[in-house]
Design brief:
- With 385 residues, the chain is α/β, with parallel strands linked by helices.
- Strands 7-8-9-6-5-4-3-2-1-10-11 form an eleven-stranded mixed beta sheet.
- It has 14 helices and eleven strands.
- It has one domain: Aldolase class I (TIM Barrel).
- Helix content is 39%, strand content 15%.
Length: 385
């Protein structure tokens, strides 16, 4: 398998460019977006995106990760990939729900796509319909299989871990193992288990908040379920390609399958010390989610875009961010606003969700946050600097 990561790219090696191509999504997962018509759609032109890609490349970035919303709902998605490839980007990654990816994968690879992260929370089609409110389970599974078959890199399943799906972890690991051992597979499949933590507009509604309190599981429950499969053998984060430094990676028993756990709520939303330039669908640019009143790139001239991107990168590299936000956490009270604009309802501080968490979950989470929060931050920053 070909290993591609920012550590091996020229230029500003530690940096990742993350672009939200659109705030629009073609599904309404119960933990993500409220049901109904999605308002406040933000999506800029191909020309403006190309200018951002050019300016970021000029600053020294060589890796770009496309998110949304759902990136593939853009009709010009292949054109965006081709523009980045022509500019010189060596790595292009997509996070997607998989509905359309298998239909365009060959063209996307030819245009420069190097890796994919595909969202899948369950291998039960009826449960998938309940969670996503949409019927395209077969499309998602096909996209995962085609990515592992086609891309000689590490494809990842991104799975929100909930009470109703926790018992499926052995099945998910077996699914990944079968694909990894198939003779036609050029790449490998890893699994990212994301604790269901408040981070999306749905939790700003009463319905979404109730769904979270009903489905939340703490980190230890996730690890306990994984240990049913076999011992968890830690893998150094720097040995796994990707742009999120906060995941804890393991090889599970004798399966050979790589599984990551992200339990931000249990951990107290620690800063992972990432080097990530985020550009939201509305053009907002940040080098840290804690930044207030960030500028928007849309409508700027190319020279202004270049100047703004340079300033954001240099601000992060200068260490000033540690002085401005010494106790920063990976949390914004207006949940999901960097991806979906303002949707769902009024902002909610982190303490709100700590207060409403059902017992006995709250005691273990509070113990974890109080005893390990600052140590986690220091440890993660030292491993990502």
């Amino acid at each position: 398998m070909l290993v591609m990561d920012n550590r091996y790219a020229p230029g500003r090696r530690k940096w990742n460019l993350r672009i939200g191509l659109t705030s629009r999504c073609n599904i309404r997962c119960k933990y993500c977006l409220p049901a109904g018509v999605q308002e406040n759609i933000n999506q800029t032109s191909l020309g403006e995106l190309t200018e951002v890609l050019r300016a970021s490349f000029e600053v020294g970035l060589r890796r770009v990760h496309y998110t949304g919303g759902e990136p593939t709902v853009r009709r010009d998605f292949i054109d965006i990939l081709q523009a980045a490839k022509d500019i010189g980007y060596t790595q292009q990654v997509i996070t997607t729900n998989g509905y359309r990816l298998h239909r365009i994968l060959d063209r996307a690879v030819n245009a420069g796509l190097t890796r994919a992260v595909v969202s899948l929370d369950t291998l039960d089609s009826q449960q998938n319909f309940f969670i996503t409110r949409a019927e395209f389970f077969d499309d998602t599974v096909r996209s995962i299989k085609e990515c592992v078959r086609t891309l000689p890199t590490l494809t990842k399943i991104s799975c929100v871990t909930m009470k109703s799906t926790l018992g499926e972890l052995p099945r998910l690991v077996a699914f990944a193992r079968e694909l990894n051992e198939h003779p036609s597979s050029r790449g490998q499949l890893a699994i990212k288990l994301n604790q269901f933590f408040p981070s999306n507009p749905a939790q700003l509604t009463d319905e979404g908040e109730e769904f979270w309190t009903d489905q939340f599981v703490d980190e230890e429950a996730i690890l306990k379920e994984l240990r049913r499969i076999g011992p968890l053998n830690p893998v150094p984060r720097q040995d796994v390609e990707g742009d999120n430094p906060s995941y804890n990676y393991f090889r599970v028993g004798d399966t050979g399958v790589l599984v990551a756990v992200l339990a931000m709520f249990s951990w107290g939303y620690p800063c992972g010390g990432c080097w990530k330039l985020r550009i939201s669908p509305d053009g907002t640019i940040t080098s840290c989610v804690n930044q207030t009143d960030p500028p928007s790139l849309w409508g700027m001239s190319y020279e202004e875009k270049l100047s703004t991107i340079t300033r954001m990168v240099e601000y992060r590299e200068s260490g000033q961010i540690d002085k401005d936000y010494p106790d920063r956490r990976h949390y914004r009270p207006q949940l999901g606003d960097l991806r979906f604009a303002r949707a769902g309802g009024a902002p909610k501080p982190m303490v709100h969700f700590q207060t409403i968490m059902p017992r006995p979950d709250i005691s273990s989470v509070r113990d974890r946050q109080q005893s390990g929060f600052r140590g986690d931050i220091a440890d993660r920053r030292s491993h990502t600097s």
